[in-house]
Amino acid sequence: MFQPDIEIIAHTPNPEKVCTAAVKQTYKKMHAKELIKNTSEEEVEKLLTNIAKLGHFSTLEHACFTIAFKDVSVLFEQFLIEHRLASYSAKSRRYVDFSEAGFVIPDYFEDKPEMEEKYRKCMLYLFNSYKNLLELGIAKEDARFVLPYSFKSSIIATMNLRELIHFLYNSIYGHGKEFSEIRKVGGMLLNKMKKLCPTVLRYFDILEHKGNASILASTYESSKSEGVELLWHTPSPDKSIAIAALIKSTNLPTALLKDIKQEEMERIIQSVVRSRRPRELEQVNFTFRINNVTLAILTHITRHRIHSPLIPSLASIEKSSSYVIPKGIKENKEALKIYREAFDRCMEFYRYLKSKNVPKDILAYALQSGNFITIITTMNARELYHFFRLRTCLRAQKEVRNIANNMLYLVRNVAPLTFKNAGPSCYFYGYCTEGKMKCNRFKEVVEHYKAWHLSPTKIPGL
């Protein structure tokens, strides 16, 4: 049945010895090289045992591991990339043909041959629909919306030991434990890691607090709201950034800075925005509710690390009969028929599974990439600039580009001085950063955002 391929393809040599030397660095005069050379197995055992029991885990961050996950579902991939202190590389669903990717068959069906057969037939139907859409000339980034969340993915992740322990804990005891696939992958990886870090992972069960995975028990319902909402933000964001910059550079009393004039505020903020280290932008935060984003585009947003997304468990989502229909499919009658039938067939199968009281984690495999989810996320102004440079670019997928332009419109109206330079990279830098993949519309895009910033009364975007 479900047989993922998990391999640790690279790691810090002698990881536990390196971590032990880092502990000794805090109280020994010896040079780091000598510390590692003179660290005995007895010291590794003693010091790392103390670290595990006391909870002083920062020294574990000196050991890093690169892991290749193969034949896991995209459901697992979404769980994985929510761990932000790591680096990920996955195959692009926008550019890679997934016709032959295959799909995960959960162990749950092992003794249920009739149900397994229905599952296989539904998944094959969806993959055939995807293939047929490609043959009609539909772009991969649009055809992918019919793919189920069971389809197989390959992803490489790099984490330090502390974050890896956190990921394993979440997989086995945390919000991942409700998914049999995630528990299984977590257990397999833990067994491999125990061979490399036997001392630390001997205490795996006490390394993190076993809190509840969720404080609320409820069924997630589809949102009737649309678009992006700015829920709340740091009060007076422009003024907050300017005052933060002045405190940093002058150390004047805060009371003297509160009456800063508009012209001075604008000059300071522009200097901050154009600096190479605009930490002042990190002092203000903006919280958004993003309604009805597709599961496919959720990954585009999650990949941005420096924000705080709140994403409902896919086990709690009720599959909705509504889904995205891209423009390219709407305009092709044959493709539209195939597309709609794919969603109808999958919904029929989903209802069948529900009627058989199948566990919620298995139901999640019948979600499709074009189904909707609503999330909340908080970003500071610096991360928003980064997000806008990438996601308002014409090379960004249309749905995430629309989301980014909506967010830009909202923040531009509450922090006009801070975000007067925000937009795609070509607008911000004055040149295109996309190399051979450029859109060849540089002048048009720059002029569009320049004109919009002069009168930001509606959502931007070409």
Give a description of the structure.
By secondary structure, the protein is an alpha+beta fold. Among the domains are: about 5-90 and about 150-205, Gyrase A, domain 2; about 235-280. About 45% of the residues lie in helices and about 10% in strands. The protein contains 20 helices and seven strands. The protein is flat.
Q: Which SSEs are present, and which pair or pack?
A:
Elements: E1 5-11, H1 15-25, H2 32-37, H3 41-54, E2 64-73, H4 74-81, E3 86-90, H5 113-135, H6 140-143, E4 152-160, H7 161-172, H8 180-196, H9 198-201, E5 228-233, H10 237-250, H11 254-257, H12 262-273, E6 285-294, H13 295-302, H14 327-330, H15 333-355, H16 360-363, E7 372-380, H17 381-391, H18 398-414, H19 425-429, H20 442-454
Antiparallel strand pairs: 1-2, 2-4, 3-4, 5-6, 6-7
Helix pairs in contact: 1-3, 5-15, 7-8, 10-12, 17-18
Q: Which key features would you list for this structure?
A:
alpha+beta; 462 residues; Gyrase A, domain 2; 46% helix
Briefly say what this structure is.
By secondary structure, the protein is an alpha+beta fold. The protein has 20 helices and 7 strands. The longest helix is centred in the N-terminal third of the chain and has 23 residues, at 113-135.
